[in-house]
Each structure stands twice: as structure tokens, then as C-alpha cells.
TrEMBL record:
Keywords: Methyltransferase, Mitochondrion, Oxidoreductase, Transferase, Transit peptide
PANTHER family named among the record's database cross-references: ARGININE-HYDROXYLASE NDUFAF5, MITOCHONDRIAL
Domain of life according to the entry: Eukaryota
Protein name: Arginine-hydroxylase NDUFAF5, mitochondrial
Pfam family, one: Methyltransf_11
Domain Methyltransferase type, chain residue ranges per copy: 101-192
Family: Belongs to the methyltransferase superfamily.
Subcellular location: Mitochondrion
Keyword Transferase: yes
Major localization class: mitochondrion
Any one GO CC term of the record: mitochondrion
């Protein structure tokens, strides 16, 4: 990542329900909001249970390796930005949370944007021990716990607030993880999370697929599958959450070329860890993918965009004090719905 020193934020993306396109800037890597649609494979989720898509041990090793990098802080730009937007959603709720939990906290990218007036005490969990060692200082009293997001070690009705930023997309059993979060919350507690969605890195995915098909006569997945926004509301509802809010941000980062995109993903600990991944890319294929990337998506200045679709979700654990929809308070309407 040669040009990290000159990366700067040009413009923060607002919430939108659309997709991405063009770009701008070369050595500078800039944040831009965009919109358009395109095709991208979705992560498969079955109603019956989980699908073992990801090698969790591999993901732990990737995150530990990234955390051990001497210049690892320069790869935190995406997590820092999304963490601040999750914190903004916490401030939108007019209450103080005595006890909160951050799942997949990393280096504490959310807590640094919060004050102790909003969160009085915070538990940070992550699957990576090396990452937890580098958690940033915060005015909030924090406790670090090494724990897998798929197996939360907390009792029911413990937390007033549960947070998660850019971690849930690596979980095999997402419905099960959401149910565990729901159980850990106290009644009238709230879950606020962010995860990357199905349109993420569509430029990289398409370029690699076309290059492999051309050079090797077929392609294998090099970008992990992600959850589609259309599935997220259903998953939250099935986990028991009410008063749901799901919205989308798109962040587009500009890089000198495909090599820098892949280097930064590795530095973030965001390399593919799917069981069916291919461990090696041929040099010719990478060169061809880089050329296709610039031809299909490149900017006039020679840079290429990488789009991150971020899905934000808010869900509440039911409590009798919460406002219910009008139809839920009318017996006749309830009977009609059941019929």
C-alpha cells in the first residue's frame, strides 16, 4: 500500500438504497458515495440452519497476522469510518446505556467515537487475540474478552446495548448469531450493527472472474459471499427483534490498481476465508484482471474504484413499554391477519 500516506477523506457517503459506478483520484484514495446497480452473488442462508461457508480458524489467523503488521494502522480507514457511523446511530437514541457489548470489536473502532455519558461500561470481544491487544483508549471503562462471534459467552438479559461493526459477514450461522445477540440483550435493549452487503467489491469480483475464464477456461470464487439487504430484515425478525431499521451506505475507495486493492484487503484482515476458495492466483490471471478492472471501471486519472456496500441494522428486544403498531392493538385486525 504505497500511497497510504496521502489518503484522505473527500466526502462521506450518505444513506441510500441504490448501488455504485464511476470514480475519481489516483494516488489519493478517496471516499465517495455513489449509486447504480449491478449483479453480484449472494451468500446462501437456509431456513433450516447454518451453512458452513467460512473457515473460522483461517479468519482468526488472517486477523492476527493483520494486527501484527508494523504499519497496520494505515489499513483501518474503512473500519474507522463505519465505526463512526455506527456510533452516530447510538447517539440518535436518547438514552444512556449502563452496560454495552461490542461484538467483533477489533481495535475498538466504535468506542472511540462514544462518550461515557451515552455508554457507561463496555465489553469488547473479538476472535483475534492480537487485535484485542491493540484496542484504543476510550473514556468509557472497557473490558476485553477473547470470544468467537458464533459462540457468545454471556448470560441472557445482560446488556442494554449490543454493537457490531464489520464482523458479522464472516459468521457461518448468522441467524444463530442474531438469536444469541437477542438473548444477551435485556428487554427493551437494542442491537445496532453494520456488515458488508452483497454488492461489496463487485468490481474486483467481476474482473477476476472474467480474467480466469479467459486465461484458465473457468473461474473459482476469490471474493467471499455476502448477505443481501433483502435477507437482513427477515433474519432480524426471525431472531425475535422488533421495530427494525435497515439501511444502506455505499463507500467507494479509489486505488492505483488491483494490486493495491488486494493488499489493503489483506492488511484489513479481510481476505477470503471461504472453504471453497482457491489458494493461488496465476500471475497472468492477475495481470489480466488488472487490465480488465481498469478497462471496465477505471477513472480517467488511471485509478480504480472498490465499492463497499455497508448494511446498517437496528433491532429492539420486545418489551411491554414499547409502542406497538396500531393493527396489533385491534383484535379484529389480528384475527384477519391470522386468517
Amino acid at each position: 500500500m504505497s500511497s497510504a500516506a496521502c489518503r484522505r477523506v473527500l466526502r462521506a457517503a450518505g444513506s441510500s438504497a441504490a448501488g455504485p459506478p464511476p470514480c475519481s483520484s489516483s494516488a489519493l484514495r478517496s471516499w465517495v458515495a455513489t449509486s447504480t446497480s449491478r449483479c453480484a452473488p449472494r451468500r446462501g442462508l437456509s431456513a433450516a440452519g447454518s451453512i458452513n461457508v467460512f473457515n473460522r480458524d483461517m479468519k482468526k489467523r488472517q486477523k492476527n497476522w493483520a494486527a501484527a503488521l508494523r504499519d497496520g494502522h494505515q489499513y483501518d480507514y474503512l473500519r474507522d469510518e463505519v465505526g463512526s457511523r455506527v456510533a452516530d446511530r447510538v447517539y440518535d437514541i436518547a438514552r444512556t446505556f449502563p452496560l454495552a457489548l461490542d461484538i467483533g470489536a477489533g481495535k475498538s473502532h466504535i468506542a472511540e467515537h462514544l462518550s461515557k455519558d451515552v455508554v457507561e461500561r463496555l465489553f469488547l470481544t473479538d476472535v483475534s487475540e492480537e487485535t484485542l491487544k491493540q484496542t484504543r483508549r476510550s473514556e468509557i471503562p472497557t473490558h476485553r474478552i477473547l470470544a468467537d462471534e458464533e459462540f457468545l459467552p454471556f448470560k441472557e438479559n445482560t446488556f442494554d446495548l449490543v454493537l457490531s461493526s464489520l464482523s458479522l459477514h464472516w459468521i457461518n450461522d448468522l441467524p444463530g448469531a442474531l438469536k444469541q445477540i437477542h438473548q444477551a440483550l435485556k428487554p427493551d435493549g437494542v442491537f445496532i450493527g453494520a456488515m458488508v452487503g452483497g454488492e461489496t467489491l463487485y468490481e474486483l469480483r467481476c474482473s477476476l472472474q472474467l480474467a480466469e475464464t479467459e486465461r484458465e477456461g473457468g473461474f473459482s470464487p476469490h471474493v467471499s459471499p455476502y448477505t443481501a439487504v433483502t435477507d437482513l430484515g427477515n433474519l432480524l425478525g426471525r431472531a425475535g427483534f422488533t421495530m427494525l431499521t435497515v439501511d444502506i451506505d455505499e463507500v467507494q475507495v479509489h486505488y492505483p490498481g488491483i494490486t493495491e486493492v488486494m493488499t489493503d484487503l489483506q492488511g484489513m484482515g479481510e481476505s477470503n476465508c471461504a472453504w471453497n476458495r482457491r489458494s493461488m492466483l496465476h500471475r497472468d490471471t492477475i495481470l489480466a484482471a488488472g487490465a480488465i478492472y481498469k478497462e471496465m471501471y477505471g477513472n480517467e486519472d488511471g485509478s480504480v474504484p472498490a465499492t463497499f456496500e455497508v448494511l446498517y441494522m437496528i433491532g429492539w428486544k420486545p418489551h411491554e413499554s414499547q409502542v406497538r403498531p396500531v393493527c396489533a392493538q385491534i383484535p379484529r385486525v389480528q384475527q384477519c391477519i391470522k386468517q
